[in-house]
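Good morning,

Attaching, inline, the backbone tokens for the sequence recovery test we're adding to the shared suite. The designed sequence is right after.
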């Protein structure tokens, strides 16, 4: 059984931990890789969407603030 303390000890020794989904959910390795891939892709797409909305909002404010 692997606990968070073991993961921290491995990090202190410089050993790279296994997939965190694999450790936390105790799934088979292939399923944990698939879940981590989907979560990573979802996080990337969400951050990208927020980035696009934020900069389009800033551009819209800069465009509307001109008095002419």
């Amino acid at each position: 059984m692997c606990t968070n303390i073991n993961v921290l000890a491995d990090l202190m020794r410089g050993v790279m931990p296994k997939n965190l989904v694999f450790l936390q959910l105790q799934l088979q390795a292939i399923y944990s890789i698939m879940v981590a891939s989907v979560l990573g892709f979802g996080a990337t797409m969400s951050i990208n969407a927020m980035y696009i909305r934020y900069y389009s909002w800033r551009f819209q404010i800069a465009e509307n603030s001109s008095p002419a």
